[in-house]
Amino acid sequence: MAASEEHSALFPIFVLTIIALPLVPYTIVNLYLTFRKKTKTINCRCSACFHSGKYRKSIFKRISNFSTYSNLTVVLLWVVVALLALYIKHINTEHTGSLEFLIQKKAYRRLSILYHPDKNPDPEAHKYFVDYISKAYQALTDPVSRENFEKYGHPDGRQGLQMGIALPQFLLNIDGASGGILLLGIVGVCIILPLTIAVIYLSRSSKYTGNYVMHHTMYAYYHFMKPSLAPSKVMEVFIRAAEYMEIPVRRTDEESLQKLFVLVRSELNLDLRNIRQEQAKFWKQHPALVKSELLMQAHLTRETTALSPSLQRDLKKMLTLAPRLLEELMKMAIIPRTQQGHGWLRPATGVIELSQYNPGIFLSSNPAVPLSARKATGGSNEGYGPFLQLPHFSESIVKKIARKKVRSFQELREMKPQERAELLTQVAGFTANESQDVEMVLEMMPSISIDITCETEGEDGIQEGDIVTMQAWITLRRWNGVIRALPHAPYFPYDKEENFWLLLADPSSNDVWMSQKVNFMDEATAIIAASKAIEELKEGAGASAKEINASVKEAIDRVKAGSRLVMGKFQAPSEGNYNLISYCLCDSWIGCDAKSNIRLKVLKRSRAGTRNIAAADEVPSLEDGAEEEDEEGEDEYDEDYESEYSEDDEDVKGKDAKAAVANGSAHAGHHSGSDESDEN
User: Fold this and answer.
1) 130: closest CA among 626, 254, 138, 80?
2) Which helix (H) or strand (E) holds 580?
3) Distance CA 395, CA 381 (A)
4) Which residues contact 654 (CB under 8 A, 6 or more apart)?
5) For residue 403, what pLDDT is reported?
6) pTM of the model
7) Per the UniProt record, which residue ranges are transmembrane (predicted)?
8) Is residue 603 predicted with pLDDT exceeding 90?
């Protein structure tokens, strides 16, 4: 009897332990991740973002995080832990001094009569009388037993370790139905539940890559990506994601989609000369493709009021998936495709343009930012799109300020704050608050500079076949002095981090030699990576420990000041001069990209041996089973509008004259945008 009560008292302790083991570390990790960036990451504070809820969400972000189902579950589990702790404490209080103490104080006489062997022939009653009641009598009469009881809670003194089963009493009664319940519980918890979780996890994880993108999406992006893919055609590849194809197309959506088609028809790349045939061809596509493109264009042109509630939910789901899908689309553009292991420049820049204008960030706070905003207009040679990422701007405003000789977005950024405020209030007709909103967004826009070198380690000059080391420092500056910030995106429903892509490319051959994603949000990781890279580089060059420490310290200081180190290696091509361009492309802001020319001089091999020559099987090549690119498709490069990254041959030659060349090694540095010191 007492033993069973003791076992039952252990069960809450067992449950408390099982809950606390995963709950405590999970809570600590989540609290750390929530509060570690609380001071340095800021949201846009313009009125557009405030009214859209972005700024208010940033203020209450740590509180609102607890509104998710996972965090509510954590809170509920902590409540259960607290209740169990109180219950266990209550049980211990009741049993302080063990059962003998209660017998001594209240019921010794009654229980001695009830369980005395002369009164109760039950063997269990006899055992209970000997084990408990007799000892209680000793504690009452014997001074030594009483002292032992006060010190150790037992008349016989210190007791040895007692083992118990931490299960409730009804599970210990194996007779009858309880045995079946226990068996079912063991089978369910120990066999069926783990197998079910494993099957569900494996079936879901087998469909996705490490970036939570479906494998079918990767296959589609790889197959439809072409070297001559025009920026205006990237949308057609982007919407072929398997995640979008799985969004159901309902019969009730048809009417809304028909109305939507009329509103966004001008953005669908339809040939106006054969508009009827083009419309018929558009509607003959897979219904999921039609729906995905119309919803994306509706968001770009701010025509979402025509959407039904179900379509609005579908669009929100598409926007949730868009950032990582665009990242994978970018990877499919720069993945090694040629025998030399080069990617493709044209589709890569097209993906960046799409992410700047479109699903990646949706910058504008104005009625529309269609892809056609990239086209040059009479007043501006870069289109009015860059202006539309500023609050309260529209195409008519751009035309007004163009009359005052402000024809490019860069010219607007380079103006002094007072002159810009006068322009916006007097010419554009902005109020003082609207002008201040524009200033806030401009203060958050990044200015990027590139300092890049390419050389063969330990050798003078670059010879064909050498392994060339590229070292680039990417530096970010903002007028407000902040390094980590979330971009101005009032129409995008979620926070999105800024990402930059560094490309070392040859525009004349459409080849991307080197590429790497750069992020300024995680300073700690950047410090570790830069320190390790510099240390390995200096050790390979035979530097002393003092020189290595000095170089590592300098690298850490540069990272803390807003720079990121990018390093990579590539095999030098055959002898010749190569006019390369290093691009640093931002996926979140228009007009904030940087590029610099670098002339790479490769000498004929004169060094003995085959040092640094990569083996033939190490050269990246096209994946097995990949289809050969259609020559006719390559010749049909759509030039419906010119990308801002395109250059004519004369422009390239003119800039190449400014590139630094020294004994076969190359170095180039470039600052994008205006000099931010002039703006402050």
Assistant:
1) 138
2) strand 576-586
3) 14
4) none
5) 87
6) 0.70
7) 12-33, 66-88, 181-202
8) yes
